[in-house]
From TrEMBL:
One GO term describing the cellular component: cytoplasm
Taxonomic path: Bacteria, Bacillati, Bacillota, Bacilli, Bacillales
Organism superkingdom: Bacteria
Originating organism: Bacillus yapensis
Name of the protein: Probable cytosol aminopeptidase
Keyword Hydrolase attached: yes
Alphabetized PANTHER family for the sequence: CYTOSOL AMINOPEPTIDASE, LEUCINE AMINOPEPTIDASE-RELATED
Length: 501
């Protein structure tokens, strides 16, 4: 996919060449003066006439009429040099790759050194490039009968740079792996519930495990009965599909300590159960396994990059259905932890399956927990569709998650979790907990409930109900699943600093 070429020669022949352009008085200074000279200053003229723009994320395409080796030049505007950021670069690369893909060009050369600045180092620009390519050009194939037009993919990217070849190649690969992992999560979320059952998800995880050498454990219904996983079993009670508790273990350290537990909600379809969803609210509920997808996407990245960390991924998976055998409001169930739960709303099923999964992650030695879930409509009301909601019981652990999310460009915002919030999930008159203490602050209630099972273990809860899907096409991908938090989780693992050792 990527070739790094240390000899920057504009006379080499490529299908197209991508050049970054910062908005500064002399746009073709430094490394680009050479290029403008080959055009006898005509590029500067084209800037003056507005045919080439340095405006942030603008793309100007010009034909070179054989003045240089390549046929087409794509100028990518990067805006003011001082305001440059990793995010702007990633989106700029995304935008130009999308244009190149729609122009059906299969080979592209990128003049990397035109993208660096005082604030953007070459390796960051390289990571942005590697990540943007798969993210921006992602498409969910879907199930339409063959269209006439065969899809053209960008197959080869030649990176022209005077930087160290090996380092650039490595950064390209890492960026690409992050983008690919996110795309895998997107595809899982885009896949409808009839084609991605809990069994399918378990098979997918097994294949991932086989590929990367993870230890895989798939608990069946009988195992869950033995272990007393009454919460996951209750949600599955109305389903014709068997539930799965999926566990992947990655050991990158000599000893099984400082273990990060990634727990992802894997509801393959959420009807709401007897607290059934209205006809408008039910459409789209195939995405209720967005947390599981992010965890699996992150495990793919971890498998590729093999960091020196220990990770246990736990995914409770089932659909939430209605039938004569389904669980009901007013039921009282017993979770694996022994805590009893009064079910007031069968649509608050995510926290139930996560309860047993968090307990099971601890059982596997997790010392630091992140649970990630499309948990509440409440988080969408609170934070909208571009910010993931977070809760925690541990400042230092939250700080690590926040930094990873910042670096990944996936914003999260913390909601409060006070003693009186916790009181509300403990307010059942007949059981230890209740799964739905009412509408007020219900994004907090969802997380607070899961936190009861983390107990003293450092824990962060990420509610991606608003961010797992989007109805907007952006420079970073099409409408549909976003694969949100895949990169944050993988970065969290890569950068993790244990507090035990
Ligand atoms: N899967 C939903 C949350 C959701 C809503 C995800 C919208 C994506 C988009 C979850 O299981 C749910 O139904 N939550 C309820 C909880 C309530 C009953 C306490 C909700 O948010 O309405
Ligand atoms: Zn629900
Ligand atoms: Zn749900």
């Amino acid at each position: 996919m990527f070739n790094v070429n240390n000899v920057v020669n504009f006379q080499d022949t490529y299908e197209c060449l991508v050049v970054g352009l910062y908005d500064k008085p002399d746009k073709f200074s430094g490394s680009l003066s050479n290029l403008d000279e080959l055009f006898q200053g005509q590029l500067t003229e084209l800037v003056k006439s507005g045919d080439i723009s340095a405006k942030k994320k603008s793309v100007s395409k010009i034909h070179t009429f054989e003045k240089i080796g390549t046929k087409r030049l794509f100028f990518v505007g990067l805006g003011k040099e001082k305001e440059a950021s990793f995010e702007i670069l990633r989106e700029a690369f995304g935008k130009v790759f999308k244009e190149i893909q729609s122009a059906k060009l299969e080979e592209v050369a990128v003049y990397l050194d035109s993208f660096t600045s005082e604030t953007i180092e070459a390796l960051d620009a390289t990571h942005a490039l590697g990540e943007a390519l798969p993210l921006a050009t992602y498409e969910f194939e879907g199930y339409k009968q063959k269209s006439n037009e065969p899809k053209k993919e960008i197959e080869k990217v030649i990176v022209l740079t005077e930087q160290d070849e090996e380092e650039i190649q490595a950064a390209l690969t890492v960026g690409y792996v992050y983008g690919k992992g996110t795309n895998s999560a997107r595809t899982l979320v885009n896949t409808p519930g009839n084609l991605l059952t809990a069994t399918d998800m378990a098979n997918y995880a097994q294949e991932l495990g086989d590929k990367y050498g993870f230890e895989v454990e798939i608990l069946e219904k009988e195992d869950m009965l033995k272990l007393g996983m009454g919460a996951l079993l209750a949600v599955n009670q109305g389903s014709a599909e068997p539930p799965k508790m999926i566990v992947l273990k990655y050991q990158g350290k000599e000893e099984w300590k400082d273990v990060i537990g990634l727990v992802g909600k894997g509801i393959t379809f959420d009807t709401g159960g007897y607290s059934i969803k209205p006809k408008d609210g039910i459409v789209g509920m195939k995405s209720d396994m967005g947390g599981a997808a992010a965890v699996l996407g992150a495990m793919e990245i971890i498998g590729e990059l093999q960091p020196e960390q220990n990770v246990v991924a736990v995914i409770p998976s089932t659909d939430n259905m209605v039938s004569g055998t389904a669980f009901k409001p007013d039921d009282v169930i017993t979770s694996m932890s022994g805590k009893t739960i009064e079910v007031l709303n069968t649509d608050a099923e995510g926290r139930l399956v996560l309860a047993d999964a968090v307990t099971y992650a601890k059982h596997h030695g997790a010392n630091y927990l992140v649970d990630i879930a499309t948990l509440t409509g409440g988080v969408i009301v609170a934070l909208g569709t571009e910010t993931t909601g977070a809760l925690t019981n541990d400042e230092a652990w939250f700080e690590q998650v926040l930094e990873a999310s910042y670096e990944a460009g996936e914003p999260i915002w913390r909601l409060p979790l006070f003693e009186n919030d916790i009181e509300r999930v403990r307010s059942s008159k007949i059981a230890d907990l209740n799964n739905s203490p009412g509408r007020e602050g219900h994004a907090i209630m969802g997380g607070a409930f899961v936190g009861e099972f983390a107990e003293g273990t450092p824990w962060v809860h990420l509610d991606i109900a608003g961010t797992a899907t989007t109805n907007k096409t952006t420079d970073m991908g099409p409408a549909g699943a976003t694969g949100v938090m895949t990169r944050t989780l993988a970065l969290l693992v890569e950068r993790f600093e244990g507090m035990e050792s």
